[in-house]
Amino acid sequence: MKQETLGSLRAVMEEEPPLKLEYFERALRGQPGGAALADAFAAHVEEVVTLVNRNRRVATVWQRYHGPRFIQEAAAHRTRDGAIPKVIDGVRLETLLLHMADTLQRHGSPELQQAIADCSLQVLRWARACWSVDDVLRELGAWKPNQERTDD
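User: That's the sequence. What structure does it adopt?
Assistant: Structure tokens below.
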């Protein structure tokens, strides 16, 4: 599967002009452990975008839980101290992430399923605990890929 950047999400967003998320990728790659997470994301973003655009069940979950709106809101606050949206129209970010993880595990490749299994718990922790990109980056410094934290 072709390596892509976070900016590839623009295919999902159908934005004009295209949504640019390279800032987030650069910030993520600049942190200890961040490159592994960015690489895992980049390895599977094309498959996820294809599933969102072509698989009716995945697309339904993405739309029902306001995936495009969460991405648009997060991108609107491109500074590191900008707010990460927690709730949109009554849908919590964790709810979107849980439902997307479930449907992607049902319809994705074995490699995507494994990546979700490896990272989803930590991503959910960040979604719950972090209010900005800076918060995520601080938490990322303490995270080791493929190791569960026990200090929660």
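Strands lie at 87-88, 91-92.
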